[in-house]
Structure to design on (222 residues):
């Protein structure tokens, strides 16, 4: 039997608020239990139903600043007046355990990680496992209807999100993949296809060997 050891993926997904990114990511994590959803830190107040440590790590502004000063974030950004960031430790622990990591972050955070990936030979380990995907709405009109339909934000907040969405949509060419989320099921199918394709890239695997000739603790992968 041919056995392979695959490197885990670090998959970054970004989108304007209301484009359906979180819904798509939630479906992916629900279907594939080998994917770890990276939990971000934020300084904003919890919304109804959100759980600290599961939805986000809710931090005070001083706590967030202290972690920034200590260099604990892989990326962090100011979004809609609140701070968001991803802790290096949570990502590293999942990758070391051989689990794919899914990061649901904005374009600022994705740009920081992309720069980190591209800087210097010491970051080659993350360059080989990095994948980023941009989720776009079918139109700004559709995005506006979605934001209004959620009923979560005041009119002023929605207008700020729409202005920011116009800016974020200019960044789609910076990503390796783009999905226009017109129909949710079709978009999810595209996301799954990207996951499968990236998992099967040759560079993700160690050299082939025949486990009938040599015992190994490497996983069988198909």
């Amino acid at each position: 039997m041919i056995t392979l050891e695959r490197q885990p993926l670090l998959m970054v997904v970004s989108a304007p608020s209301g484009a359906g990114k979180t819904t798509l990511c939630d479906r992916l994590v629900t279907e594939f239990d080998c994917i770890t959803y990276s939990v971000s830190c934020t300084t904003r107040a919890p919304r109804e139903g959100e759980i600290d440590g599961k939805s986000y790590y809710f931090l005070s502004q001083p706590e967030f600043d202290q972690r920034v000063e200590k260099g604990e974030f892989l990326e962090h950004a100011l979004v809609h007046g609140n701070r968001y960031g991803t802790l290096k430790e949570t990502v590293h622990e999942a990758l070391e355990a051989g689990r794919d990591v899914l990061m649901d972050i904005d374009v600022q955070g994705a740009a920081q990680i992309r720069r980190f990936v591209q800087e210097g030979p010491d970051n080659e380990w993350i360059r080989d496992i990095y994948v980023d995907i941009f989720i776009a709405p079918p139109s700004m009109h559709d995005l506006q209807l979605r934001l209004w339909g959620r009923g979560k934000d005041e009119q002023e907040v929605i207008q700020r999100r729409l202005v920011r969405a116009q800016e974020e949509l200019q960044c789609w060419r910076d990503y390796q993949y783009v999905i226009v989320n017109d129909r949710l099921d079709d978009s999810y199918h595209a996301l799954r296809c990207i996951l499968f394709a990236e998992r099967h890239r040759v560079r993700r695997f160690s050299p082939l060997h025949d486990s009938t000739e040599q015992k190994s603790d490497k996983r069988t992968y198909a």
Summary: Residues 214-222 have pLDDT under 50 and may be disordered.
